[in-house]
Amino acid sequence: MTTPLPTAPYTLARYRQGEDVRLGLVVGARIRPLDAEDLGAAGLNDFLAEPDWDRLARLAEAEGQWTPISEVTLVAPVAPRQVLQAGANYRSHVVQLIMGGLTARADDRSPEEIRAEAERIVDHRAASGRPFVFIGLPQCVVGDDEPLVLPAASDVHDWELELAAVIGREAFRVDADDALDHVAGYTIVNDITTRDLVFPGDVGDIGADWFRAKNSPGFLPTGPFLVPAPFVDPGDLDVRLELNGEVMQDATTAELIFDVAAIVSAASQTLPLLPGDLVLTGSPAGNGQHWKRFLRDGDVMTGTIAGLGTQTVRCRAETSGSLS
């Protein structure tokens, strides 16, 4: 099956070659291997720390061991040491959530008044609040070459398609005005969540259990491409997820309450962000919880972000030994 390609003049990808995983340069429908000499760096993360895009542009026009991309198996384009995730960050989605909460409290206001109150709350947060950021596990990052195995202990596994920034130069306590200087590129991530584990009943009101809800094996399908930052406007990208051909999420990053720069800056206040790390920006309305339809054996999710290509994830029910 042909992988829909990004629109950038060139991108980076990783692919299987026998038992090994190699870094490659993608131009159109072709890919060529990149070694340390090509990169001028020991590996991908070292390159991202000081990316020389002109070097790759020259390689994109040069002769080399080009192979049709349809003949290779792409894997996750990065191997991050850290994954930082932003939640509740699309305006229309958060307005819906707040409206639901207000309505559930037997609020006697009209729907229009409730929506106005929800929008006021969101606007106040955008003006004076900060992004909500939590930690994911890098072990969950996989390519869409691997099926998403749905753990048998639950039947409410959900999708959340997201734009992810890939860190370049190390970022520690950077201002929002400088944060994008530390972003090397962008990719697609689907943040899978087991909904009935988010607020477990056996721990009272302690809070959300993001560890169990979001960190099963393969719960961060990523890529398949890393698109260099110079080719991407992260503030206005269409984000669309289809489940078995039916549109579930369809939004634009213009709806972000906190933009990429704000999220990177906020995350960097606590710990240094390292080259190759992923910073997820949140997911728009239209997840399974909204539709009351969760992932099942045989489902196919197709996630597209404008200019970044398309990710195809196939779901499989867990069976004995299926995670080994």
Q: Could you walk me through the main structural features you see in this protein, from its secondary elements to its overall organization?
A:
With 324 residues, this protein is an alpha+beta fold. It folds into three domains: 65 residues, no CATH class; 192 residues, Fumarylacetoacetate hydrolase, domain 2, CATH 3.90.850; 41 residues. It has nine helices and 20 strands. The mean pLDDT is 94. It comes from Brevibacterium celere. Belongs to the FAH family. Keywords: Metal-binding. InterPro entries: FAH, Fumarylacetoacetase-like_C, Fumarylacetoacetase_C_sf.
User: Regarding CATH, which class of the largest domain?
Assistant: Alpha Beta
Mean pLDDT: 94
Q: So, the CATH homologous superfamily of the largest domain?
A: Fumarylacetoacetase-like, C-terminal domain
Q: Could you give the order of the helices and strands? A: EEEHHHEEEHHEEEEEHEEHEEEEHEHEE
How many distinct beta strands?
Answer: 20
Oligomer: single chain
Largest sheet data: 6 strands, mixed
Main-sheet strand order equals 7-6-18-11-12-15
Q: Name the poorly predicted regions.
A: none
Number of helices: 9
Query: Distance between termini?
Result: 26 Å
Q: What value does the Rg take, in angstroms?
A: 20 Å
Query: What general form does the structure show?
Result: globular
Helix content class: 10-25%
Binned strand content: 25-35%
User: What name does CATH use for the topology of the largest domain?
Assistant: Fumarylacetoacetate hydrolase, domain 2
Question: How many separate domains?
Answer: 3
